[in-house]
Structure formats: structure tokens, C-alpha cells
């Protein structure tokens, strides 16, 4: 915690999200922490998220090579559809992020924040694979409670479409543009 305070008091670089967005995530972390917190994205706010989850597991994933396929591709592939959807080794589902570190697949995540890959220009891969993969992780959760999924920049057309398809607008808990805080309801069990 001291390292984080030192960092933010001695630098002009600040977190990318505005205070209202950070507050939504902070409130959930304060209620659920220490917990398992998975973040798609590594940025100026990484120290802050780690400090907010002191004593928990905070894992950052960042890979500029992620590229995702079209929305329609999952509908014709049984390995993409509930209740049989899975990630690790699922090469049949073009949306599944199958080459993540082993720890990502082995741990149940209490919170997942999607803040990468970028999707605001045509050459950017977008967050479609991360959105789908977060939904599958939340759906396949076996432990108590729900997995909270935070999606940043949901105002982008493609991200919004994928969020509504996989995370479902009716499960929106709290939001602040451009962040949506969602609970994924489609739990097996």
C-alpha cells in the first residue's frame, strides 16, 4: 500500500478511469476483498487495483496480439454455447481465449475487469474475446457468490454489442459511462 501511495503522490500520471468509474469497482472490492481479481489490461492504474485488493490475488493480462472473430461465429459451434462452453483448450470456439496462463483457468475469479485490448479504431482487435471469456468464467463458477464483471469503454459499438450478447443488459448492477458493472447470471449448478 505504501508503494502505491508513494507512486501516486510523486507522479503526474493518473489512472485512466474517472473517479466515478473507479468508485464502482472500489466499492465492490471493499465489499468482496480480499478476493480473486482478474484484469484484462495493464495500465497506469495497475498499482491502484493491486492496493485496493491487498491480501487477495490480482492478476493482470496484457497481450497486444489478441485478435477476435465475428459475433456470429460462436452460435454455430456447440463448444461455445452454454452449458458446454469452456476456455482452456477450446480451439473450436474462435472467441475463447485459449492461450492464457494456467492460473487464469484454475482459479475462480470474484471480479473481472475488461479494459483491453483497444477497440476504438479499425485496426484494433477489440475486447470481444475478453468479454466472451469473462462470461464463460462467470458462468462456470462453482463457488459461492457471483462473479462481478466490469467492462470499460462499453460505448464502443462492438464492445456494447458483445456485452449485451454475453453479459446481458438485464443484469446490469451499476453503471457509469463508459464503464458498466455487470453480474453474469447464467451459472450452472
UniProtKB/TrEMBL annotation:
One biological process term from GO is:
xylan biosynthetic process
The keyword Transmembrane is annotated on this UniProt entry:
yes
The protein's matches in InterPro entries, at most eight in alphabetical order, are given as: IRX15/GXM/AGM (IPR006514)
Q: Where in the cell is it found?
A: Golgi apparatus membrane
Q: Which UniProt keywords apply?
A: Membrane, Transmembrane, Transmembrane helix
From which domain of life does this come? Eukaryota
Recorded topology in the membrane: Single-pass membrane protein
Task: Tell me a GO cellular component.
Answer: Golgi membrane
PANTHER family named in the record: OS11G0490100 PROTEIN
Please state what the protein is called.
Polysaccharide biosynthesis domain-containing protein
Amino acid at each position: 500500500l505504501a508503494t502505491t501511495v508513494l507512486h501516486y503522490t510523486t507522479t503526474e500520471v493518473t489512472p485512466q478511469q474517472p473517479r466515478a468509474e473507479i468508485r464502482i469497482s472500489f466499492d465492490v472490492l471493499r465489499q468482496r476483498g480480499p478476493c480473486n481479481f482478474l484484469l484484462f489490461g495493464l495500465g497506469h492504474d495497475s498499482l491502484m487495483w493491486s492496493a485496493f485488493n491487498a491480501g487477495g490475488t490480482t492478476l493482470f493480462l496484457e497481450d497486444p496480439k489478441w485478435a477476435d472473430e465475428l459475433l456470429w461465429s460462436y452460435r454455430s459451434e456447440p463448444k461455445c454455447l452454454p452449458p458446454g462452453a469452456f476456455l482452456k483448450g477450446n480451439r473450436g470456439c474462435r472467441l475463447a481465449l485459449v492461450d492464457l496462463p494456467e492460473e487464469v483457468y484454475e482459479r475462480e475469479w470474484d471480479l473481472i475487469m475488461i479494459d483491453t485490448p483497444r477497440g476504438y479504431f479499425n485496426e484494433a482487435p477489440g475486447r470481444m474475446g475478453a468479454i466472451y471469456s469473462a462470461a464463460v468464467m462467470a458462468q462456470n463458477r462453482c463457488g459461492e457468490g457471483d462473479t462481478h464483471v466490469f467492462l470499460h469503454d462499453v460505448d464502443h459499438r462492438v464492445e456494447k454489442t458483445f456485452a449485451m450478447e454475453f453479459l446481458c443488459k438485464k443484469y446490469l448492477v451499476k453503471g457509469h459511462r463508459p464503464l458498466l458493472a455487470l453480474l453474469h447470471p447464467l451459472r450452472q449448478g
